[in-house]
Automatic annotation (TrEMBL):
Keywords: Hydrolase. GO terms for molecular function: agmatine deiminase activity; protein-arginine deiminase activity. SUPFAM superfamilies: Pentein. It comes from Marinobacter orientalis. The lineage of its organism: Bacteria, Pseudomonadati, Pseudomonadota, Gammaproteobacteria, Pseudomonadales. This is Agmatine deiminase family protein.
């Protein structure tokens, strides 16, 4: 499984529509999706699906006009397809590199253990493949529930994940840790799996997806969220996660370089619930890193830290405050497609 910083041909977006949980907030959330799409088009293509055909046609026209007028390299591949929701990271295909070129794996998706409707999302990759969005690249079905946000790859055979997510019985109830490691070795080419047993974010529906907590920023370097406030409910779990990361070693036996990310001020929804704001939910694309920001004082520090971790890429902040009202952020709404797949 390639690392996210490997060359890409496109980023996949599943557009919000009135039939999703965004129905009452489309005016606030669509600008976030537009900001992401426009940023991606500066560097690569966008595969964009939407259940509402008229809105899809508008987006295809407007975004391609935007790219052409600015002589950007990216174009939009627009696909009419039903969807329950917009979290492309988790229902999108997971790429692997094979001797014959890239392949796309279509793992099962069941809305994080059956928490919400999922049947349309589970079929979405097949719709995209039948439309020709992935060219001649194979889409390979895998009868195993796995979300892209639950795994991080260093591109060299190591997967970072959380036991809270992958071992939840509502996903793959017949499989224990050993069976899951064996399946990932067969499907993703994994040599070893690093399991985090601690760490969570209040308001997270995913059972502690790794992409909200800790991320590879190089094969030997992991960045992670840290909570310095001992009075915060997250302090103990994230401190325990930090200790686990300090005990991890690379395949060569060397410890990882570790960089902590800022802890944003608490953000609450209209009903008073705490929302899962995290700076770990960034997206790496060709030539840039899209960084979620939330209108809090820690945004600037997060941008500066990530700029130091990715010195050869432009930092592009994206206001993700509207996204976290539905308990996800920037990385959650995107899925990268490797180089050589999408030819818009």
């Amino acid at each position: 499984m390639p690392a996210e910083w490997a060359p890409q041909s496109a980023v996949m977006l599943t557009w919000p529509h009135p039939g999703t949980d965004w129905s009452d907030s489309l005016a606030e959330v669509e600008p976030v999706f537009l900001d992401v799409a426009r940023a991606v088009l500066r560097f690569e293509h966008v595969v964009l699906s939407c259940e509402h055909v008229v809105r899809l046609q508008e987006l295809e026209r407007d975004l391609n006009d935007y790219a052409r007028k600015r002589e950007l390299p990216g174009r939009v591949v627009a696909v009419p397809a039903p969807a329950n929701d917009t979290w492309a990271r988790d229902h999108g295909p997971i790429a692997i590199a094979s001797v014959d070129g890239p392949e796309l794996l279509d793992f099962r998706f069941n809305a994080w253990g059956g928490k919400f409707p999922w049947e349309k999302d589970d079929a979405l990759n097949r719709h995209l493949a039948n439309f020709g969005s992935f060219g001649t690249t194979r889409l390979v079905p895998v009868e195993f529930v796995l979300e892209g946000g639950s795994i991080e790859s260093d591109g060299q055979g190591t997967i970072l994940t959380t036991s809270e997510c992958l071992l939840t019985p509502s996903r793959n109830p017949t499989m224990d840790r050993g069976a899951i490691e064996h399946l990932m070795a067969e499907t993703l080419g994994t040599d070893r799996v690093l399991w985090l047993n601690h760490g969570y974010l209040d308001g997270d529906d995913t059972d502690s997806h790794i992409d909200t907590l800790a991320r590879f920023c190089a094969a030997d370097h992991i960045c992670y969220v840290a909570c310095p406030d001992v009075s915060d409910e997250h302090y103990s779990a994230l401190a325990a996660m930090e200790e686990e990361l300090q005990q991890f070693h690379q395949a060569n036996g060397q410890p990882y370089r570790l960089t902590s990310l800022p802890w944003p001020d608490a953000i609450h929804g209209d009903d008073g619930e705490r929302l899962p704001a995290t700076y770990a939910n960034f997206l790496i694309i060709n030539g840039a890193v899209l960084v979620p920001v939330y209108g809090v004082p820690q945004d600037e520090e997060a941008l500066n830290i990530l700029a130091g971790l990715f010195p050869d890429r432009e930092m592009i902040p994206v206001n993700c405050r509207p996204l976290i009202r539905q308990h996800g952020s920037l990385h959650c709404i995107t899925m990268q497609i490797p180089a050589g797949v999408v030819k818009a």
